[in-house]
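re: ur question from earlier - yeah i can do the single chain one, its not a big deal. heres the input i used so u can compare w yours
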Amino acid sequence: MRLNHLDLHVPDVAATRDFFRDYLGLTEIETRGANGLAILHDDAGLELVISRPIEKFGGADTPTAGFNTYHIGFMQPSRAKVDDLFERLRAAGAELWSEPQAIRGGWLFYCFAPGRILIEIGWRPTD
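and the output i got, formated as tokens:
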């Protein structure tokens, strides 16, 4: 079995789509409407859907709920790539939760994507 897609509910689809495309390298496949639904892919085949909250599924996003219940992680090929991405995000005014640091055997930091999606950016050495 393989995870096929994730659908993240956010108040501003375009801003969140742009963050994942511009900083995390996902490819935009389709955007429906000005703020309706965006579909992105990563280089491993995962489909990331960005959409507004859907009322019949509870209609909540992190800013509306007022708390985070999850985070998603993106692995980088090197420690230097982690540091480079941190500096790009800092220069762009992104909301950074921590500086890159050694945690759980890797090198990582946390930030928030638009919609207050908690993101882990990390690298772990391979044996």
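The longest helix spans residues 79-91. not sure if urs matches, ping me
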